[in-house]
Amino acid sequence: MPPDQYDVTDYLFDLQGFVILKNVAQPELIERLNKTMDQYLDLEYLQWRGNVQRFDNNGHAGIELQNIVEGGQAFEELIDHPGYIARLKRYAGEQGTYVEGLFIDECFASVRRSGGYFPFHTGGEDGVMRGQYRWVNGYFRVGQVNMLLALTDIGPGDGGTMVIPGSHKANIIHPQVKAGWDENQKIDQIVGAHQVTMNRGDVLLFTDTISHGASTRTNPGERRVVIYRYGPKWGNTRYGYRYSPELLERLTPERRAILEPVPTRKPPSA
Ligand SMILES: O=C(O)CCC(=O)C(=O)O
């Protein structure tokens, strides 16, 4: 897509490193996602149910249900939801090249309860190739874009995502982050950080290269989100999870192409 056709959301995504898309998922889908998630909340750390595993990658963040796309139809619908898929292709899908296409290299649902938070991580200064943020000859060439869907309203005290706007282009690590403020429950005092507020059904799209984390939840109850990380089709799964043959078989060709963009090539006899 030529740059003269980019819209305000594209402009803000480039400038800030994140955008909020309002009312993407209808209440009916949110309800199905929440109900499906309920069935996994009794899992112990590292326990599996089917091809979903509870694997809380950060000790403070809360419950994380990895490979959640294996959780059923509602989660399958998020693979290529019309509310955001065209943007993800535009930002991370290597559009117009011989490797055009997307891949979801990690997908999980997260439940944050009182006391939970997520320390800041990444930032342009890292220069990490997996999440690189590039703009080349009028095209987005982003290594990883996260789709975070709110399953509950997320306001002050709810443990919402925090971002440092523009930090995907930073050259210097934020001095307070470097000093560990975010690890010491002072995450809400980091200068320049912005707490993202959302209504259930809203989507936050952000480049993983932006410095981000989540504020401490002080309210009772739960913050629930689903996060799918999209990158180019040649990417690899982050933690080694594999999509099951049963799931791949039942998906539409469009969805299958995002979970298995490069099918295994074998001789006919193998
Ligand atoms: O839980 C959040 O809002 C942030 C999650 C996060 O930072 C991450 O998954 O990289």
Give a summary of the structure in a few sentences:
The chain is an alpha+beta fold and about 270 residues long.
Report on this model:
- The chain is an alpha+beta fold.
- The protein has a single domain, classed as q2cbj1_9rhob like domain (Jelly Rolls, Sandwich), CATH 2.60.120.
- It has seven helices and 14 strands.
- The strands form three sheets. An eight-stranded antiparallel β-sheet has the order 1-12-9-14-5-4-3-2. Strands 6-13-10-11 form a four-stranded antiparallel β-sheet, with no helix packed on it. It has a two-stranded antiparallel ribbon with strand order 7-8.
- The chain starts with 7 loop residues before the first helix and ends in an 11-residue tail after the last helix.
- The chain binds 2-oxoglutaric acid (AKG).
- Residues 61, 110, 118, 161, 212-214, 227 line the site of 2-oxoglutaric acid.
- 2-oxoglutaric acid binds at residues 61, 110, 118, 161, 212-214, 227.
